[in-house]
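Exam revision sheet. Question 4 asks you to relate a sequence to its structure. Input first:
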Amino acid sequence: MVNENPKPRVMILGTFHMRQTPDLEGVDLHSISNLEKQNEIKAVLMAIQKFNPTKIAVEVEKENQDALSKEYHQFLQGELALEVNEVHQFGFRAAAELHHKNVYAIDWMGEGSNRDLGSVFEWAGNENPELYKQLNEYYRPKLEFPEEENIFKLIQMCNDPGRNKLDHEMYLAIGRLQKGTEYIGLDWLSWWYQRNLTIYSNIAEITKESSDRTLLIIGSAHVHLLTQFLKESGLYEVVAANEYIYE
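Answer key, structure tokens:
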């Protein structure tokens, strides 16, 4: 019998975006400099450090790896003030505390769709008011983040399996937006799948050794598909973030 080596481990930490963005995962944090917010961020950092990652990957386009590395090294040398975003507050701080030499850019935002998500919703409002109403009155209220919520609790929400499933279900509903043979929603959805498959490939590129423990910090909308791709590859042990994000 062949003695198989242990599989590399990957943990996906779903996050919200700390500033409002064109997608649906933003929370506009006005300030994180006060002691209360800093303690909330520290609680997240302490939780993810229990996973003991050997590599940390973040939602930055891969083509910007050099700029990301430069920023991270400036931070290590005390030459960079961290911005209010999840790459800096979670990625850089966790990597520094674990004495990592680098962080990894794994995102892709290449061309593929003729419309962004905002214009897809605009089209739906004009051409398919019934499905538009379902998206806006059923899905979006359930997926919106409460304002000024505890950061640790927001991260718990981001990694709730039920919420991740609902996120994915809404995107599949968007895929049903069409008029005749004009597949408006599917055009965007196919790009979304391509983006996540590219992220999966980039994670695979840095996660090859059985000793690798890669932490991916990324918007929570990606969690469902990336978990699926990583598990179905048969190459990785996927660790649920909610095993570590608890009070």
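Marking note for examiners. Residues 184-206 form the longest helix (23 residues).
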